[in-house]
């Protein structure tokens, strides 16, 4: 049984002089393993997969899997770090072929959004996801993000898809409290917050975790937030979330992953490079992100209370 609980980081793709920087990518995977995150998402929206050709996508995934499985020596649970793989598109047959290529790989599952741009009917969406789940040997995580796809996965559609034995979770970015709560109460799909500002609410309602781009920046704090709420420490979880809120908000003031890459570059972990049409964060936002990336208040507060 696959478990998608906890904080998952949708990895950026670092570049250096226009090429994928595999050394920086390896270092990032090790960093997040050491931080205690639950898993990684490779080739999700934050990873700029639309700007990578097929060979680059395969190479990025190979690097992530190589280090994630070696991370068993670094991760607190002494296990390989699970990796979800983003599969996007609006041509069902081509996506089935891609899933077939991924089936032999040691991945935790595939993350699939609704077909973008063409705005199919809900019946078409059910048929699309059913065909892809039928083709997959691994668990499927639905990605409900109408902001990008132009079409929402309605609650009835999600509940219909929940009956498929390989559809196991949903990355919830639709912004509907009613849908989030209904899915949690139904219990068949693990609900992962996909809107970073909804992490606290989702976890308090009984959601399983989050796939959070802003967790690139302070992964230990996000892990501490999840653990506090999982252990019923509401006041502590609220305090951590309130401390994270300005950074989360700033991370999405401009198109993702520009702000995340800007601060990772300021931390010396990557170069501040994206591929067109994505652009770097503005100088104003970069300066604000650096200001927000101050000393770890969580550690300081813990030390004061010791």
Protein model, in words:
It is found in: Cytoplasm. Homotetramer; dimer of dimers. Pfam families: DHDPS. It is a single chain. With 306 residues, the chain is of the alpha/beta class. The chain has one domain: Aldolase class I (TIM Barrel), CATH 3.20.20. Helix content is 46%, strand content 13%. The chain has 13 helices and ten strands. The strands form two sheets. It has an eight-stranded parallel beta barrel, surrounded by six helices. The protein has a two-stranded antiparallel ribbon with strand order 2-3. β5, α3 and β6 form a beta-alpha-beta unit. α1 packs parallel to α2 and α9 runs antiparallel to α10. It is globular.
Estimated structural class: alpha/beta
The number of distinct β-strands equals 10
Helix content: 40-55%
What would CATH call the homologous superfamily? Aldolase class I
Keywords:
single chain; globular; eight-stranded parallel beta barrel; 13 helices; disordered C terminus; two-stranded antiparallel sheet; alpha/beta
């Amino acid at each position: 049984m696959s478990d998608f609980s906890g904080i998952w980081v949708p990895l950026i793709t670092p570049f250096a002089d226009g090429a994928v920087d595999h050394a920086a990518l390896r270092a990032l995977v090790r960093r997040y393993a050491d931080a205690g995150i639950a898993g990684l998402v490779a080739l999700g929206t934050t990873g700029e997969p639309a700007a990578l050709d097929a060979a680059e996508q395969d190479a990025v995934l190979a690097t992530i899997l190589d280090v994630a499985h070696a991370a068993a020596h670094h991760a607190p649970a002494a296990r390989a770090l699970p990796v979800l793989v983003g599969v996007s598109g609006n041509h069902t047959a081509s996506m089935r072929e891609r899933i077939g290529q991924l089936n032999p790989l040691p991945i935790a599952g595939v993350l699939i959004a609704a077909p973008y741009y063409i705005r199919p009917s809900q019946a078409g969406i059910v048929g699309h996801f059913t065909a892809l789940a039928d083709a997959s040997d691994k668990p499927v995580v639905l990605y409900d993000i109408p902001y990008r796809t132009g079409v929402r996965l309605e609650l009835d559609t999600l509940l219909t898809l929940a009956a498929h034995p390989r559809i196991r979770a949903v990355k919830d970015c639709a912004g509907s409290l009613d849908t989030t709560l209904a899915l949690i109460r139904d219990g068949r799909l693990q609900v992962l917050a996909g809107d970073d500002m909804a992490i606290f609410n989702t976890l308090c309602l009984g959601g399983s975790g989050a796939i959070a781009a802003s967790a690139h920046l302070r992964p230990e704090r996000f892990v501490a937030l999840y653990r506090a709420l999982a252990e019923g420490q509401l006041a502590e979880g609220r305090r951590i979330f309130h401390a994270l809120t300005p950074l989360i908000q700033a991370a999405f003031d401009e198109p993702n992953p520009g702000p995340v890459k800007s601060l990772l570059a300021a931390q010396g972990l990557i170069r501040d490079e994206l591929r067109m049409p994505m652009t770097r964060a503005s100088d104003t936002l970069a300066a604000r992100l650096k200001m927000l990336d101050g000393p770890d208040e969580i550690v300081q507060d813990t030390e004061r209370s010791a």
